[in-house]
Amino acid sequence: MKQLVKIALIIALIFSAASIATPQAQAATTTTLNAIKQGQYTVPIQFLTDGTSKSSVMNTYVNPTAKLVVKNGKQYVQITLKNSDWITGLKVNTNGKLTKPKTISTNKKKKEKVVQFEAKDITTKLNAWVKVDAAKYNYHHKYNVQIKFDSKNVKNKSGKKVTIKKPKTTKR
Predict the structure, then answer these.
(1) Radius of gyration in angstroms for the set of CA atoms belonging to the chain, rounded to a whole number
(2) Which of 169, 90, 155, 162 is nearest to 127 (CA)?
(3) 56 phi/psi in degrees, rounded to 5
C-alpha cells in the first residue's frame, strides 16, 4: 500500500511540474487609440534625456509643438526638425521597434525637415534614438531620448483643447 501511495505522489508531482513548465498561450491584445476623432491637432512635445525627466539638448533641434494626425484609425505625430542637416539619424519606437520616421517635407533654406511616425498612445513617453553630426563644430554623438507629449494641451484646428483618454488594452 505504501508503494502505491508513493507512486501516486510521484505521478501527481510529475503532472503538476509539467503544468508549471508548460507555457500557457497568451491571449492576443488590442490597444485602442487615445479616443479622439479623425483630424489634425497640435500637441506640445518635449525631448527628455534618457531615463530621466530632464530636458534634452535635442529640444533645441525641434519645434516644441508637433502635429497630431488621426487618420484611418491610426495616430501619427509630425515633428519639425530644426538644423535638420545636423540630425543625421532619428529612430522612434513604433510598435515596439525603433524605426526611421517618414520624411514629409524638407526646407533646405530654413534647414528644416518634417518627419512623421505612428504613435498609438500620446499619454506615455516614447523611446527614440538620435544621431547629431555638426561637422563645423566637430560634434558627432548618438543619444537615447524619450519624447514626452503634453496630452493635457492637445488642441484642434480652431485652438480648442481636446480631451485625450488613455488607450484601453483588451484581451481577445
Answers:
(1) 24
(2) 90
(3) -90, 155
Half-sphere exposure of 73 (CA within 13 A, CB side): 3
Quote the cell numbers at residue 120: 498609438
Q: Contact, 116 vs 104, CB < 8 A? A: yes
Closest listed residue to residue 36, CA positions, set 66, 64, 69: 69
CA distance 112 to 125: 24
- Cα–Cα distances (Å) from 133 to 53, 108, 114, 140, 155, in that order, read 25, 17, 18, 4, 34
Question: What are the CA-CA distances from residue 58 to residues 81, 103, 118 (Å)?
Answer: 10, 18, 20
Q: Which domains does the chain have, with CATH numbers?
A: 37-153 (2.60.40.1850)
Provide the mean pLDDT of the chain.
Answer: 83
Cβ count near 87 (within 10 Å): 20
The SS3 of residue 8 is helix
| Per-residue pLDDT tens over the stretch 65-117 | 999 999 998 999 999 999 999 999 999 998 889 999 999 999 999 999 999 99
| Phi, psi torsion values for 138, nearest 5 degrees | 50, 45
> Of 39, 43, 50, nearest to 126 (Cα)?
50
Classify residue 150 by burial, with Cβ atoms within 10 Å: 0-12, 13-18, 19+: middle
